[in-house]
Write a structure and sequence with these properties.
The complex is a heterodimer of chains A (about 160) and B (about 210). Chain A has about 160 residues and is α+β, with helices and mostly antiparallel strands. In chain A, about 20% of the residues lie in helices and about 35% in strands. Chain A has 2 helices and 10 strands; from the N terminus they run βββββαβαββββ. Chain B has one domain: CheC-like (Chemotaxis protein chec). Classes of the chains: A alpha+beta (about 160), B alpha+beta (about 210).
């Protein structure tokens, strides 16, 4: 029986086909899936903030794009998967509320997360094969390591997208 | 969490409970006047949750909820989010606009925004009164979406200072309708120090 492994906020997990891996209700956070097509193994990390070096409260590495992606890569490597066989699919980073405030970074935190995730993956040499980021709605994502497809849904809007 | 941080959280929690109490009182008065209907508000409950527990309070990460967010500016940078479950939003619109109006219509949503605006104004007024800080709050912005995605906005702010979030639960009754709403207030500064100092309890928090 295939099961669906659920990843919480500031959390990461690994899954092997035929299981799938999911994170629910992503807003400005980003879900990063790293997968090895041949091994049919995938990991997912659900990050909240772009940069651990800018925050004092940074003990939980999985809260941040930089340290969260590092932790996921290390976890996959510890399972014998080479960094060079990893590909990425990413989703999230929405701007949930519209604002015209000059001083606040609330409105742009999704964008900052997107940039930080892309920069981090680039620095590790991991290619982003597909993305569904930004815009103004929440996302639930499910990754199937068998097909390497990422399914994105929004319960309230009744829309589904496969990338 | 170590003891120092737990102590800090208790202080913030108590301060927010007090702000909430006064805010709820103010809100009840202005809402009763506006609605010319009997409105009662219970003293709000303030609780601390893990990020992953929080969304379950609102029916789970994928439950559709209504959030109204406003930014507080001036001596303090903060955000105040008013959020309620879909069933509560429906009851609120019914109590204000009558049985037949669809809560997701433009009029339904604007009545929710208006109520949220009054609640947010009452909270920021109470915050201003207790702390002596000069603050103003901006135009509220409404979003209907999954609980996880809406709560991610204040949670990200909380994540800068902690691994937990504070939730103020407000229970109110308009006529025959009981409505449950939640308020999340989070300072945008990298610590709660400014906030606590202005409430005159900063030293306690810093010394843990």
């Amino acid at each position: 029986m295939a099961s669906s492994i659920i990843v919480g906020i500031a959390d990461m997990k690994i899954c092997k086909a035929p299981d799938t891996i999911t994170t629910l209700g992503l807003g400005s956070c980003i879900g990063i899936v790293l997968y090895d097509r041949a091994a049919k193994v995938a990991g997912l990390v659900h990050i909240m903030l772009p940069d651990s070096t800018k925050i004092k409260q940074n003990q939980n590495k999985l809260k941040f794009a930089d340290t969260g992606i590092d932790a996921l890569v290390q976890k996959l490597q510890s399972m014998g998967i080479s960094r060079f066989s990893l590909k990425a699919k990413i989703a999230g980073g929405a701007k949930m509320f519209e604002f015209n405030t000059g001083t606040s970074d609330i409105g742009s935190i999704g964008d900052k997360n997107i940039i930080a995730v892309k920069n981090k993956l680039k620095s590790l040499g991991i290619a982003i094969m597909a993305e569904d980021v930004g815009l103004n709605y929440g996302r639930t994502i499910v990754f199937n390591p068998e097909t390497c497809e990422l399914t994105i849904t929004n319960v309230g809007r009744n829309n589904t997208k496969i990338i | 969490m170590d003891h120092a941080k737990e102590g800090m959280s208790d202080i913030v929690k108590n301060a927010l409970a007090e702000i909430g109490n006064i805010g709820a009182g103010n809100a009840a008065t202005s809402l009763s006047t506006m609605l010319s209907a009997e409105l009662t508000m219970s003293p709000p409950q303030v609780d601390i949750y893990d990020f992953n527990e929080l969304e379950n309070i609102l029916g789970g990460p994928e439950a559709v909820v209504v959030g109204v967010l406003s930014m507080v500016e001036g001596d303090m940078q903060a955000m105040i989010l008013f959020v309620m479950e879909m069933e509560d939003a429906k009851r609120l619109v019914k109590s204000l606009m009558g049985e037949e109006l669809d809560w997701r219509s433009e009029m339904g949503l604007s009545s929710i925004t208006e109520i949220a605006n009054i609640l947010i104004g009452s909270y920021s007024g109470s915050l201003e009164m207790l702390s002596g800080m000069k603050i103003r709050y901006g135009q509220p912005s409404l979003c209907v979406d999954m609980a996880g995605s809406i709560l991610s906005v204040p949670c990200i702010q909380f994540a800068k200072v902690a691994d937990k979030a504070l939730l103020i639960n407000s229970h109110f009754k308009v006529g025959q309708y009981e409505i449950n709403g939640y308020i999340m207030m989070v300072s945008e500064t990298n610590s709660y120090d400014t906030f606590l100092n202005n409430l005159g309890i900063g030293g306690v928090g810093s010394n843990g």
